Amino acid sequence: MENMIIWTSAKVENFSHNSEKFPTVKVAVIGDALVGKTSITQKGSSDTFEDITERTIGVEYYRFYVKNRSSNVYLFEFCDTAGQERYSAMLPAYIRGVNMILIVYDVTNRVSFEHVEKWVTMAREHNEKAKIILVANKIDLLTIAESKGKSVIHYHEGHEKHLTLKMDGFKDVSARGDNFKDLMLFIGDLADGLSFEKKKMGLNLNPPLTDTYVEENQCSC
Ligand SMILES: Nc1nc2c(ncn2[C@@H]2O[C@H](COP(=O)(O)OP(=O)(O)O)[C@@H](O)[C@H]2O)c(=O)[nH]1
Ligand SMILES: [Mg+2]
Fold first, then answer.
1. Taking the complete model, does pTM exceed 0.70, yes or no?
2. Which of 88, 112, 137, 212 has its CA at 20 to 30 Å from residue 31's CA atom?
């Protein structure tokens, strides 16, 4: 039994359950350094925001549940990565093993937005099947950054970008809380369309450990 939080459309609760019962959705969180990948991942797994001063080294894992709008429950396993170039050699290996990829940019940092295409290309190169979601982070800083004359990225620009790059969704959030539950429910709903589901939900509970099965179900991160 594990005790982790569950995101539901009603409220966030502590949820104690045997995780084997629910399909696991593996998620990679990628994007430039300092856009908020670690903050988003920590918010997901603990519903808290703490100002982060340490840079992520390599890859870290966080787990939590989402009960989606159709009342299906999924165990989400987020892999948080370092955005710095020096770790990029590790990225292909764990991008390959995930069901979803969140590509994050900072709405107050145009360079991070301009790099989105590069991240999408990398994601698709190593994983053709994963759902790719564009996440605009730090919307709580939008007004103040704009008033200081920064070239901020407004909602419609991000939305347009996800359409142009044929991504599977777009959400604007703040790791401090704004729209965050909406993002959690969105990925929960999206999980209904993943193909791993049938195996875990009863059609094939004990599949042989063939190479294909291992590849599809084990996070190589
Ligand atoms: N105001 C605000 N600050 C944020 C938000 N997300 C992250 N930060 C801050 O931005 C900095 C970089 O965040 P971090 O999660 O380490 O970014 P990472 O390098 O992409 O993992 C830290 O100081 C965070 O506290 C947000 O939504 N709003
Ligand atoms: Mg980090």
1. yes
2. 212
